[in-house]
Amino acid sequence: MDATRRALLAAAAATPLAACSPRRAIVLGAGVFGSWTATHLQRKGWNVLLVDQMGPANARASSGGESRMTRGTYGRDEIYTRMALASLDEWKRLSARASLPLFHNIGVLFCFGEMIDYARQSIDVHRRLNLPLVELDRSELGRRWPQMNLDGIGFGLFEPQFGALMARRAVAELVARFVAGGGQYRLAHAEPGRESGAVTLDGERHIASAIVYACGPWLAKVFPEVLGARIFVTRQEVAFIAPPDGDNSFEEGHLPGWADFNGGDLYYGFPNLEGRGFKIARDTHGIAFDPDTGERRITEEGAGLLRAFAQMRFPALSGRPFTEFRVCQYENSSNGDFLIDRHPTIAGAFVLGGGSGHGFKHGPEVGRMMAELVDAGRMPDPRFSLATKQTMQARSVL
Ligand SMILES: Cc1cc2nc3c(=O)[nH]c(=O)nc-3n(C[C@H](O)[C@H](O)[C@H](O)COP(=O)(O)OP(=O)(O)OC[C@H]3O[C@@H](n4cnc5c(N)ncnc54)[C@H](O)[C@@H]3O)c2cc1C
Fold it and tell me: Model-level pTM?
């Protein structure tokens, strides 16, 4: 390091916090949560540096998948229905300005064996909020989607206004717009500062009046003493299958996004969006996973389960080849509620995460809430506080 650089770093290290711009924020992690937080802070007039160790929605990030479902169906958890709806407006606006679609309004179908609390409560919430949710019996399901085998399905709930977000592309677009709007983005690995307002980026000390740690599945490693026992990172497997050649029944417009509550395990997926293949995944939490060292090759067992379900529910997919696999991770809080709070001991530091396998769609609202906490000290709903995060996993948000 040359002398000038050393002198600059020493000066920065000695700079009292009061001397740093009062509205300077550093957001660590350019996944969906960090990127929307940076965007909302920028809208509020903050000078924001967004940092990621591998790039916006990179291949290891939870936001790095091809597609993510957006839906309002959340059983009794109306808060997430409202957040999904408010976020959808932002996603649509972003999509309308992008050169390629970020949102495919294909609708989402939930299939149930029988009436269960989750379905009943979803219907109630949608009625209360005046949101369209169409109840379909077996004959109507069969008429609309003859490519589905309805064994074990009693009825369906169809949400026409939701669908699929092109996840990786959407975050890349958002970050590009953030930078075009004067925000700074930097590729660097961050080490948290234990003193208020400081963080080390690739060995250089930086200061800001607010530092937001939006590190997704790495969050528990960044703050092991606070979050090590409160974030549960699990391995999740996803597969894509080539539909029969020339068959349009697996295309957008002919098949919605779907989630199948029948038979214990929840499976979900998408039609052949943008020719990437029919997507299928199992929502059941996998084994514990390290986002740095975890093996990202799908298991034989996992591929077998996905194939078996796909060909049971969609018989025309029998024997069709897999086109792609992905191994990603959920960063679960104890019950599935997000974490949007201050760090308990480091002034000016904030913790953001706990996406719990359903966070992507909510990125705009989560980012807005974190930005309001940073900017105005406005606490979000108590469900998102650190204090509510337990050390025992008991998933209740679906
Ligand atoms: C298989 C799968 C399917 C899913 N399906 C859905 C769905 O259908 N609908 C839905 O709404 N949600 C879904 N989710 C959940 C959703 O994708 C996540 O909740 C969301 O992407 C989490 O975003 P994040 O910004 O918190 O984390 P991430 O996207 O992981 O971003 C964290 C970022 O922080 C960076 N970082 C970490 N540590 C450091 C450091 N020290 N220095 C610098 N940078 C750092 C990482 O590189 C990373 O880019 C799914 C998740 C998975 C894995």
Answer: 0.94
